[in-house]
Every structure is written in C-alpha cells, then in structure tokens.
Automatic annotation (TrEMBL):
This is Arsenical resistance operon repressor. It comes from Bacillus amyloliquefaciens (strain ATCC 23350 / DSM 7 / BCRC 11601 / CCUG 28519 / NBRC 15535 / NRRL B-14393 / F). InterPro entries: ArsR-like_HTH (IPR011991), HTH_ArsR_DNA-bd_dom (IPR001845), HTH_MetalResp_TranReg (IPR051081), WH-like_DNA-bd_sf (IPR036388), WH_DNA-bd_sf (IPR036390). One of its GO terms (molecular function) is DNA binding. Residues 5-100 form the HTH arsR-type domain. It holds the Pfam family HTH_5. It comes from the Bacteria. Keywords: DNA-binding, Transcription, Transcription regulation. SMART domains: HTH_ARSR (SM00418).
Amino acid sequence: MEPQQNALSSEGVSQCLKLLSDPTRLLMMKLLADKEYCVCELTAIFDMSQPGISQHLRKLKNAGLVRERREGQWRYYAIHPSGPEYTLVRSILRQIDEKDGVLQTLRLKEVTVSCR
C-alpha cells in the first residue's frame, strides 16, 4: 500500500485533533474556512476578550492552520490553504452541520460586526 500524498504522521494528526477539540477553535476554523476575519470581528462574534481570541489564533497560527495578514493596525486571519493539515481540517469542518444552532448564532452575529 502506497502512502497517501500529504499524509500526516500520527503525531501530526493528534496535534491537529487536539487543537480542534476546543469548541471555540473548531467553530473559529469553520468561520475562517469561508472568509477572512479581523481579530475585532472574532472578538464580537465569540463575545470574548481580544487577548482570549488572540490566544486561540496564535495556537492555530503556530500549528500552520491559519494565516495572518496585516493591514495597518488590523490583523486578518483565514484558514491556511496549503500544507498537509489542510485536507484533514477541511474534512473535519465538513462534518459540522450548517444548521448547527451555535454555528448559526455565530453567523448571525458576524452580520452586525464592523471594525472600521
């Protein structure tokens, strides 16, 4: 049997699952899979402090799951579309039902948020 292209080690899969086992990070990744968000938008959507959101984003960024873009004083985050973890993460995120109550509540909050 040939190894899968971009296959992860057991340690890599374990680390990815560990990061996504946190409900906030899991839902954050679900949102980031669709579009880029500013830290202040995520703060309002998740009703969390900026340091709390930044801590989650730092863990995701350090693991290579999200990318950061700076624009002036603002920092924007999106899912990182490359690397071996991308396929695993997308597969996991597809398992979340779009009708999930928590996800729908977060998506409703995002409509009312503006950083500028």
